[in-house]
Write a structure and sequence with these properties.
about 10% helix; disordered N terminus; five-stranded mixed sheet; globular
Length: about 80
């Protein structure tokens, strides 16, 4: 028997999407982003989570996706967002 996915069936992960994101804690997200880039990975600029902290999406040199997170209660609201 062969299982087939129906188009109208619900998906936890949409077609083409990655899946689970691993978040690694950081005490210094700026230094860790620089290290990711230094070691051949890709790192987006950090983004604030207002009053919670900072996160940034990354890929290692093999293309594996992960994110970094640093706690910071002083993280600001992004410019242009009501707050």
């Amino acid at each position: 028997m062969v299982a087939q996915r129906r188009r109208d069936a619900g998906n936890a992960v949409p077609d083409g999407a990655g899946g689970t994101t691993i978040y690694l804690g950081s005490d210094d997200i700026d230094a860790d982003l620089a290290k990711v880039r230094e070691l051949g990975g890709n790192a987006e600029e950090k983004q604030p989570i207002p009053k919670i902290g900072w996160f940034a999406r990354c890929k290692d040199s093999e293309g594996n996706e992960f994110s970094l997170f640093q706690s910071d209660e002083n993280a600001p609201m992004p410019e242009g967002m009501p707050g």
